[in-house]
Write a structure and sequence with these properties.
This protein has 580 residues and is an alpha/beta fold. It is built from 16 helices and 16 strands. It starts with a strand and ends in a 29-residue tail after the last helix. InterPro entries: AB_hydrolase_fold, OHBut_olig_hydro_put.
Length: 580
């Protein structure tokens, strides 16, 4: 059972401040970020509204051509009550957030609790566009966990962190979402990378604890109907990306049979002996993909070329750097690109994954993810990150300094949980060569390929992430975009599903054509016309699970994957999804 730290916050959200959109509605969610009346001192309500809006924008395609609210999905006004607290696992250094939304229209005839974990390293509302958007209109309560990550950044410059309501406070004056164990330091500390807990190994426990917290809060909300238990209240687990990995971890350790069904979208799931660990292919991509993507076969791929249609100069330099180190034998840029491409193909990368990964590479996400996860796996603090990396506040001119009060106040609502962004930069890990970022990327890579003490410690942390086998009668559905370039299906979902089937389980699996990892990227040039959103398929899977649990429809042994078609230059139309 979770151990709640401090009091449970109980807030009502009605009229112009609902559960699903903070009163913004779909139109407001699509608009620019909701302003703060006083940028230095935003109110609790303003912070919550903006955190919800930022979470929606980070996950869903809310663009004018994307079809959200017209072709699929909706954002109705859902009044209700929120229960929020800090909780802590045994032996953990840092707490994690749990939050339960109980709608006024809670369906007591079909008692339902949706439990979810944030995608990426996002804050507590990070899965609202999936779990909240599907569950709340159905009358389900929704329990969220930040799974030991989140945007409660700690700033050593003024010794401040984030309180339960999102406001900032000095260490020692209030309970904080995260405060480093080190009494002094420099720069910015973030919970996922610097808590000392390797939170990823506990994602499944975080999900099950959020479910327990959800049941307890339903007891509080409806004492006449208590107790709420897994026997009389069906618990549906769903999540996306890291959240999808979290619910699959939970399914594997659900010894009490709490979960009635699981729907995981594009999960970051590790199946030893069959797939590849995230850290392995992320650090490989950081070193090799920039060069491979200069190959002519990617000439028309979005983000793979500069504004003049030429390969990015920095990526061409990467080819030259690898050649100078003797890692590439070819002597021309074109041949070097092909050699790097063939190397990645041999390690399991598909053309689809590499093509979509041009965006991830252009945004420098491989290095960013590698630095944060290495720090988490090695349980390092903000002053001791591997390979010389560190997080610091950035000034308007891009140079490190001390964050101003307004920037600091907005972190909890706006930040993604892993810098850079929102006035915080990832510094270090570079040298003064023509390819300055390669040194840090190769250092991160050696933590996987090497055999020193640090490498062994990192491998031990990764081994702790291994998925476990769920019970064979658990309805379980995994959906993954065929074009996912961040968490390629060949490394994640496919080996996991193959393992489950080899062990006698009967999971459903949709490898969705034309879908990739980031629905929010569909608003970017060249993305929406090539790719489909994954969220509508997740909603459809949850609908099917609901029909099985509450209407007695049989759970299918297999279900063909819908054959959708990209929307092209126009707006998304219902028939394009192939779901009818």
């Amino acid at each position: 059972m979770h151990v709640v730290q401090g009091e449970v916050s109980v807030t009502t959200h009605r009229d112009h401040d609902d559960l699903l959109s903070g009163g913004l509605g779909l139109t407001g969610l699509k608009d620019s970020l909701a302003p703060f009346a006083d940028s230095k001192h935003p109110t609790e309500q303003e912070l919550r509204r903006r955190a919800i809006q930022t979470s929606w924008k980070g996950i869903a395609d809310l663009g004018p051509l994307g079809g959200y609210g017209a072709v699929y999905g909706a954002v109705p006004n859902i009044p209700g009550v929120e229960y929020q607290a800090f909780a802590k696992l045994p032996r953990a250094h840092a707490p994690h957030r749990v939050l339960v939304q109980v709608p006024d229209n809670f369906d007591q005839a079909h008692r339902c609790l949706v439990v979810t974990a944030s995608s990426g390293s996002r804050g507590i509302y990070g899965a609202i566009a999936l779990a909240g958007a599907w569950g709340l209109p159905r009358g389900c309560a929704v329990a969220y966990t930040d799974k030991g990550a989140g945007s409660g950044y700690f700033d050593f410059s003024d010794d401040s962190g984030v309180t339960l309501n999102g406001e900032r406070a000095k260490r020692g004056t209030a309970m904080l979402e995260f405060e480093p164990t080190a009494p002094k330091g420099e720069g910015i500390a973030i919970k996922h990378a610097h808590s000392g807990d390797n939170p990823e190994a506990d994602w499944g426990r975080h999900v099950l604890q959020a479910a327990q917290f959800g049941l307890a809060m339903l007891d509080r909300a409806f004492p006449d109907q208590a107790p709420f238990t897994p026997q009389n209240t069906r618990i549906i687990a769903t999540g996306l990306s890291n959240g999808g990995g979290a619910v699959l971890q939970a399914a594997g350790i659900d010894d009490q049979h709490m979960l009635a069904g699981v729907v995981a979208l594009e999960p970051n799931v590790h199946t030893p002996g069959r797939g590849r660990a995230l850290y392995d292919y992320v650090t490989e991509a950081a070193v090799w993909l920039p060069c491979a993507l200069t190959d002519a076969r990617f000439a028309s791929v979005p983000f793979a070329r500069d504004a003049h249609g030429a390969p990015h100069a920095a990526w061409v330099k990467r080819c030259a750097s690898l050649h100078e180190q003797g890692l590439l034998k070819a002597t021309t840029p074109e041949a070097q690109a092909t050699e790097a491409y063939e190397r990645l193909r041999k390690s399991g990368w598909t053309d689809q994954a590499m093509a979509t990964a041009a965006s991830t590479t252009a945004f420098d996400l491989w290095r960013v993810i590698g630095a944060a996860y290495a720090s988490a796996y090695l349980r390092r603090g903000a002053d001791d990150m591997p390979c010389g990396y560190r997080y610091e506040a950035l000034l308007a001119d891009g140079k490190p300094g001390v964050a101003d009060e307004a920037t600091r106040a907005s972190w909890w609502a706006d930040a993604s949980g892993i810098p850079p962004g929102n006035g915080v930069g990832l510094l270090g890990g570079t040298n003064d060569s023509a390819d300055p970022q390669l040194a840090g990327s190769e250092c991160l890579r050696r933590l996987w390929t090497g055999d020193d003490a640090n490498a062994r410690e990192l491998h031990a942390s990764v081994q702790a992430l291994a998925a476990r086998l769920p019970r064979k009668d658990l309805p379980l559905w995994v959906l993954h975009g065929a074009d996912d370039g961040l968490l390629p299906t060949a490394f994640t979902s496919e080996p996991y599903i193959d393992w489950l089937r080899a062990e006698g389980c009967r999971p459903l699996y949709w490898k969705v054509p034309h879908a990739q990892h980031f629905d929010a990227f569909l608003m970017l040039p060249g993305f929406g016309d090539r790719h489909l959103p994954l969220l509508p398929y997740g909603y459809a899977a949850l609908d099917r699970l609901w029909a099985h649990l509450y209407q007695g429809q049989p759970w299918p042994a297999d279900l063909p994957t819908p054959a959708g078609t990209p929307r092209g230059a126009g707006a998304l139309q219902p028939g394009m999804l192939g779901l009818q």
